[in-house]
Every structure is written in C-alpha cells, then in structure tokens.
Design goal:
The protein contains five helices and no strands. It has helices spanning about 5-10, 20-30, 30-45, 55-60, 70-90.
Amino acid sequence: MAIDWSVHRCVLCSDQQPPWSLLQLHKLAEADAGWINVVETVINVIPADDPLGPSVVTLLLDECPLPTKVIIILVYHVDMYNFLTAISRL
C-alpha cells in the first residue's frame, strides 16, 4: 500500500480544514473498537524505517480522539498477554 505523503505535507503546511480522509479517520476512531482498529492498522501499514513514517503515525493518531480508560487498559492487557505468550515459547 502506497502512503500519500502529499496529505501529510498538506496538513502540516497549512491552517486549512484537514483532508476528507483524515476527517473520516477521526469519525472511525470515535468508537472504542474503531480506535483500536486505527492503531492496529497504523502499526501494521506504515513502515517505521521510512523517514516520514514516525511523523505520519503521529499525524494520524493526533487526528483521532483520545481513547477511553477502558480501551487503554484493554490494550495494555492484550499487549501483556502477547508478551507473556512470546516469552513462554522461548
């Protein structure tokens, strides 16, 4: 999947309304399950070794509403479970 860097540059360089795609992302992330899906997709799709990768992740997550306390606890427990499962296989 190709990343549209022009959207990133457009948002950073102007005070205009965010592009339609970022508005849709915000709308998706308003629900708890949507926020988790957005975060998982960002982690899986955006290459961390790309020079603009970290700033794109920051931009996308900045456009999302903050997660609820319940979602933060859920993500923590899922990550801890995955971590402990990985260690047990060593």
